[in-house]
Amino acid sequence: MINENLEPMLHNNSATLRSNLKVRSASQNFWFSIMWLAGLITLVVLLLVLGYVIVQGGKAVNWEFLTTAPRGGLSGEGGISTTLGTTVYLVIITLLIATPLGVGAAIYLIEYAGEQGLTSPIMRVLISITNFAVETLAGIPSIIFGLFGYALFVSTLRFGWSLLSASLAGACLVLPTVIRTTEEALLTVPDDYRRGSLALGATKWQTLYKVVLPAGLPGIITGIILSVGRIISETAVFFVTLGGSHRLPTSIMEGGRTLALHLYYLAMDTNAFDKAMGTGAVLVILIILINLTINIISSKLTAKVRGG
Amino acid sequence: MSGRMIADKTVKYVLFVNAILSIVIVLAIAFFIFRESIQAWTEIGFSDIVFKSVWRPGQDQYGILAMIVGSVAVTFGAIVLGVPLAIGSAIFLGEIAPKGVQSLLRPAVQLLGGIPSVVYGLFGMVVLVPLLRRINVPGNSGYGLLAASIVLAVMILPTITSVAEDAIRAVPDSYRSGSLALGATRWQTITQVVIPAGKSGIVAAIILGVGRALGETMAMIMVIGNSVIFPQPLTANPLTLFLSQARTLTGNIAVEISYATGVHESALFATGVVLFALIIIVNVSARWLINRQSAITTTRQG
User: Fold this and answer.
1) Domains with residue ranges and CATH for chain B
2) Is the CB of residue B118 less than 8 Å away from at least one CB of chain A?
3) Which residue of chain B is at minimal alpha-carbon distance from A173?
């Protein structure tokens, strides 16, 4: 009797359950396809932009384009040789300023700040303000760095529109990138390394210099390469600090234009869209190479950490 | 012995100076931009700068309201277009995509974030603007808020996607197992468990995207048209608002700073102060949300 009553009920229940599961799976399939679509659109956008710039811009790029100086003025004629040179100068000078400052700051924040914070509350506050300042710097838009560089380096200190003003402003811009990536690199160095070295009688600085920094070097280099990419891509800061002359600067007190700035001037002031696109293709290829290098270094790093 | 110790101490102090340099730079930026803007605040006045929308440096009119609205409108457009795509990609990367697809898409997102903004601007000028110009509305030049919003949406996509994916990955696996064990589907687990748990981080990702959008300069100058007009619909259809040209706060600074002098120059620094204030508010709230997120995940785990 009981069984007969229960049987259809059970049957009913599992039927609703089953149909409920069907609805839920259908909904899942629907939404999963939407998410796949989102991922696909992102990929397509990238390929579209890269493909267009490289294919269209590639037409203008040849040996002559790379090795001839731009004529300047409104014609847009000539190549990009001096802008390549200026870009290289700017990258080197900016990193000469930013790397020691950023790496030094990161070493302090990771290797010293902990013990300092334990002993003194003032240091603890100072260190948390420092972290907040690094976050803030990372979020400040580049045109604000430009304005700052214009007010301090170009006007107040009278460096004028020059490589010096631009690289000082650029160094402020990439500083948080160098600090954060170096911090991450130092955090991956196992504490055993430090203890081993200290136990052998090395001082803290000897330990850092001979053991910790070499171990963290690939990560630090990744940060520096990342900064190279930022400087090459950056326009707003240099638009207001570097002047914009199409000639190659002969001293640190002279201005110039980077590849990215050259693209901007071509696109806005001339009708030479083909040359602008060619400059864009060169820029994009540089950025792809930089990204590839970073990915190779970091995948090697991951393999090493997992292996150890 | 003592030589080593002295070296050790010296290094420590030198490194300490390096560390607090970031504080010095932030303060110096705030100080110099504010100092240069004082002339504008005193001679023109706060309300005539912030609440008036006529910008005619030749006639000593320096209202930046039209540009505040321009910046906000283009940011809004970029968020509407970019956020669904970015969050979708983040969920896809964090929860759905097979390993192989992940290892293709993640570097792609990274690369998208590395492309120089002038390249996006040029792509906008050469490809997007001519397409939009075909929309048959009187006064439509193709340049304007819509073109700028589309370009900007692509530019903030990588920031939002990677920060949101981090937030999604930070949700402990035990949450997912628990939900799946109760019979929920993977999609139900994502919407009812993972996203609510990672909510603060995801919101922070969007806010960081807002910050990037407000701060973008060169690409905006290239596609937005730069006329200082209060954005308004071109026809009776309110949607044509987005075909209107505009100028952003950032564009105003970059376009005019190289030749401005006196009060005009000071007014551009005042524009920078307003932008700086907006960005600080946006970033501090994002930071607060991210910290709250990590506090939540750690306490729950412990």
Assistant:
1) 2-301 (1.10.3720.10)
2) yes
3) B25
